[in-house]
Amino acid sequence: MRELRLSVRTRLTAWYGGLFALAGIALLVTNYVLVAATLPDPKDFTASARAGMTTAVPAYQLDEGRVPEGITLTVRDYRESALNTLLVQSAIALVITIVLAVWLGWIMASRVLEPLHSITGTAHQLGADNLSSRINHEGPDDELKDLADTFDGMLDRLAGAFDSQKRFVANASHELRTPLAVQRTLIEVAMGAPDADPNLTRLGHHLLDTNQRSEKLIDGLLLLARSDRGLSSREPVRLHEVVADVVESYAGEAAAREVEVVVTGQRRVVVGDPVLLTHLVSHLVHNAIVYNHPGGTVRVELGSTPALRVVNTGEPVQAEQVPGLFEPFRRLRTERLASEGTGLGLSLVRSIAAAHQGSVMARPNADGGLLVEVELP
After folding, report:
1. Looking at the 3D structure of the chain, how many domains does it have?
2. What angle do CA 122, 123, 128 make, to 5 degrees?
3. Which of 3-17, 90-104, 230-244, 305-319 bottoms out in mean pLDDT, i.e. has the lowest?
4. CA 7 to CA 254: how far, in whole Å?
5. CATH number of the domain that 320 lies in?
6. pLDDT tens-digit series, residues 116-129
7. pLDDT, tens digit (0-9, with 9 covering 90-100), for 342-364
8. d(CA 180, CA 197)
9. What is the extent of the structural domain holding 198?
10. Inside any domain, residue 122
11. Strands of the chain, DSSP E
12. Which whole-number Å values give the CA distances from 109 to 116, 139, 279, in the listed order?
């Protein structure tokens, strides 16, 4: 049997209402006992009445010294009526008060738990690329404020750690570009020597390919670090023009792979960084062409929601493989070919979209390949 799960607010309200109901019942019972003890008892009243009636009524009119039965019945009825009225009216008042107590307890529990809702809402907004939100709880110096302040302090430390990591990646990538450029120059000079040996030339081409792949990897890491830091400036960007330029730049590669690229949709202007948005579209289109098959298609659709959709044919993709494709250095294929990039494509797409307060969603395409949707505000 599935266990019933109640919210903290519901449990607090139930405890408050239950304790109030128990206190009300105890008060009702106590009141009933006290009133019952205060009201005259028919037996005691009969004795008192008999003593008083002997002076006003001749003894021969009394039946063996007894009080008339009507007086005793009247006292008994009065007592029972008073206690029943007290019990019924008190029960009605108790039920109404319990309902009001439960309602007030529900409202009070909501106010007490409001800082916890703020903590939960802030936690839902957080991510590795968004650690700027804080609770900033203002209220009495109690346990909930201590919890909120502790949570804010933890976020400050996490934000500092992530910023330090991003700066390290950016600085390391920048420092690595210089020796790679020097290596490329030395290799090209050695290959261009008049007396260069053919074996040296073949080795040089291989080293240049390796050097080029390393440079692309470092450029990708620099771009990832830049997008993770957010946007320093924004400007209107004609997304449809960006898509047209990117598709035109990859026309030769698409023709070489016998892949047809089709662009449809409407004109769309977004606010953001044109360079980063160009990289976003470029990585999506390049991946759609590379991870395709001869005779396949790539559809690039522009719209309002989503802003950009890229659909390609190709090898079937399992649904459980899709989340891992957004991780750095994860590829759908296992072979490491320089022409297929560095494994940062979709990671960069997600990071750039997040920097623009957008999101990326991907799912397997029914005809094989992948469908990627980018939401941009």
Report:
1. 3
2. 110
3. 3-17
4. 56
5. 3.30.565.10
6. 777 777 777 766 55
7. 667 788 888 888 888 888 999 99
8. 23
9. 144-228
10. no
11. 235-238, 260-265, 269-272, 297-302, 308-312, 359-364, 370-375
12. 11, 16, 50
